[in-house]
Design goal:
single chain; alpha/beta; seven-stranded mixed sheet; 39% helix; 15% strand; Rossmann fold; two-stranded antiparallel ribbon; binds S-adenosylmethionine
Amino acid sequence: MNNLSEPQWHSELGALNSVGDALHWGEQKLAEAEVFLGHGTDSYHDEAVALLLYALEQPWDVDPSIVEAALTDVQRERFGGVLLRRINERVPVPYLTGKAWFCGLEFSVDERVLIPRSPIAELIEYRFYPWVEADNVSRVLDLCTGGGCIAIACAHAFPDAQIDATDIDEGALDVCRQNIAQYDLQDRVRALLGDGLAAAQGQYDLIVSNPPYVDAQDMASLPDEFRHEPELALASGLDGLDFTRKVLAQAADYLSEQGVLVLEVGNSMEAVEQVWPAVPFMWLEFEHGGHGVFVITREQLMEYREIFQQTL
Ligand SMILES: C[S@@+](CC[C@H](N)C(=O)[O-])C[C@H]1O[C@@H](n2cnc3c(N)ncnc32)[C@H](O)[C@@H]1O
């Protein structure tokens, strides 16, 4: 407990009468503790709201007049419990509530999957315009799917397409299958186990991937919140490109003639430019923040195949 003794914490918690009191107090405690923001919320206020709604068992669109309601003992204890874990153990909010949002859709999450936050959401909302002809997209591969957020959002964006969602981790795929079932998409979205492209079957019009890409230096300095996420979902060797190298060398074989690969590499974009200076990666810009996502066509992957194979 940050600079606060246990009796003092319980006495302050016990003095909270209304939902509004709890919100104000929670926000203040999160700010004092300087918890790291970046797992779906960008203010202490939003973090306190999410934890409080979880404690109250209320949806995000609850009537705002709820702030005037009296807190029950059970709600107070539940709120105090999750707030304490957020502060002392630095557990990100979505792992405490079991819920995260991506492309306006709610997903179940737990510590077996990365918390959804990829800027690729914005591309999905625009149906990857102008990189693909949306009406011609019949097969999509979400490589490194985690809890399935990209695959499921793509299934909504391309209602006639079949989607394969692949991952190397069976635990992540368990969560992915839960989410597929939650959206009743079992007939269009398949969760497949495999290392890299080994689980891919046939050719796709679009391969989209938010793979592990954090380099060793960034891994060593991540805020504690990230230590709750699977290391397998983040780390990818010294320069962050272990996974990317393999995909670039192989992806052409899994793309249809007009197919494209959309790959996120985050901060490792500089390393990409250093390793393959001759390749004209198309780096995308985002209205709502984020960077390090490129598009490359099957044609380009074929053209530079030898270069990609040399750097394996
Ligand atoms: C950064 S997370 C992305 C999760 C999800 N797509 C998202 O955007 O929130 C990367 C995922 O890649 C998986 N992964 C790591 N190495 C892999 C490999 N060699 N082959 C397939 N999946 C892998 C991890 O298990 C993890 O679920």
